[in-house]
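Per your request, structure below.
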């Protein structure tokens, strides 16, 4: 088994995930559906690959936990890899991440999402099922801030999925297990590191949720993800994660600091040959804040149904907007355009940069032959052909006899 070749195959097929399990063929997920590739994989081959990827130093940690998360660039693809122990042996789940810098526009999200990054404090909660693109959407929010404002951005992830290049923002990225022992420690450290924006990769336990809410309440903009099927379910799960005696306080914190709750799922559009996010958006208006503070989450849906003017979206309303949308960002078309783009030769650039001929000297050129299909591709390319005989021949004709 060659992990690098399998990832290359998954990339070539446009897969989002690659699954490897001993005695089973590799499986790739394309447009939401799984299909197998190749012959069954031997357990020894997977064990060797896992040891190579995890490394000697971290291997004891895998043996202790029976799972290990890491991110790595393989075959030009940024991959999030989970190595796990199963009943058959050691397997892998590999998520192939997109190589481009995600933005609201490139993910085909609603343009109004850009306005949400203007907030200076509070909680932006992004939720959805596993594999629904939550990390990409959160990366898009971070990139929008990075491109537009001079803010100190701190991310805490496990593992780091998207590598950000600072533009106007000042970005620090920390990986749990490598740069910090835990989310809890990183969040406590963050209070002494002067961040304007904090990104929490995932809220997995009550302590992480508590610290995240505390940071959002103290004048910082916090982006975090959670697993749920709706925005209301995401809020309910956060509250339910705490002991009963703390839930009233958590509801009050959520009501005070929530900026927006977004839940998304990916929908494949056959007309575009592309998966696009379909979103539900909850804006904390005064009635919604009251419902959250009192823990009356079942009443929030009625507010969302009539909250279009406040920027709220139900799945149905958002789907209607997607159906009416005309301008789409299509990564495949852009990639094809880049690959087929013609490069102007240096010799042509030199000719175009040369001074114009002096007055009295003919600059006529012979009639060009009919354009061939290869030449038609060079629509914007201007070539200046030399006159037969060159400049010396022209000057000799101009000399007085």
């Amino acid at each position: 088994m060659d992990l690098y070749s399998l990832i290359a195959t998954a990339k070539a097929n446009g897969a989002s995930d690659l699954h490897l399990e001993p005695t089973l063929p590799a499986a790739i997920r394309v447009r939401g559906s799984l299909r197998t590739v190749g012959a069954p994989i031997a357990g020894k081959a997977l064990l060797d690959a896992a040891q190579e990827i995890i490394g000697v130093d971290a291997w004891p940690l895998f043996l202790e936990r029976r799972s290990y998360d890491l991110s790595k660039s393989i075959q030009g693809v940024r991959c999030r890899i989970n190595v796990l122990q199963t009943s058959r042996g050691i397997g892998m789940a590999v998520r192939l991440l997109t190589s481009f810098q995600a933005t609201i526009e490139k993910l085909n999200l609603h343009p109004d999402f850009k306005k949400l990054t203007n907030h200076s404090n509070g909680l932006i909660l992004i939720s959805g099922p596993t594999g629904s693109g939550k990390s990409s959407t959160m990366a898009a929010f971070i990139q929008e801030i990075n491109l537009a404002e001079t803010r100190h951005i701190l991310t805490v992830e496990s593992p780091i999925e998207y590598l950000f290049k600072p533009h106007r923002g000042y970005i620090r990225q920390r990986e749990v297990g490598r740069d910090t022992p835990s989310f809890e420690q990183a969040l406590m450290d963050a209070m002494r590191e002067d961040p304007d924006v904090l990104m929490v990769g995932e809220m997995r336990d009550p302590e992480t949720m508590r610290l995240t809410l505390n940071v959002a309440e103290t004048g910082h903009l916090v982006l975090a993800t959670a697993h749920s099927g709706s925005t209301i379910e995401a809020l309910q799960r956060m509250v339910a994660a705490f002991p009963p005696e703390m839930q009233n306080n958590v509801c009050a914190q959520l009501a005070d600091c929530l900026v927006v709750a977004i839940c998304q799922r990916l929908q494949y559009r056959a007309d575009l040959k592309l998966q696009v996010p379909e979103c539900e958006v909850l804006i904390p208006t005064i009635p919604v804040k009251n419902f959250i503070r009192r823990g009356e989450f079942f009443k929030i849906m009625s507010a969302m149904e009539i909250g279009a003017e406040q920027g709220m979206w139900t799945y149905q309303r958002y789907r209607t907007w997607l159906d009416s949308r005309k301008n789409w960002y299509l990564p495949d078309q852009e990639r094809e355009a880049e690959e087929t783009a013609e490069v102007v030769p240096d010799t042509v650039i030199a000719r175009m940069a040369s001074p114009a001929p002096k007055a009295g000297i003919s600059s006529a050129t012979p009639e060009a032959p009919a354009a061939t299909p290869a030449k038609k591709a060079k629509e914007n390319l201007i070539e200046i052909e030399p006159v037969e005989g060159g400049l010396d021949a022209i000057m000799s004709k101009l000399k007085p006899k």
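Residues 3-96 form a domain with the Beta-Lactamase fold (CATH 3.30.450.90).

Regards,
D.
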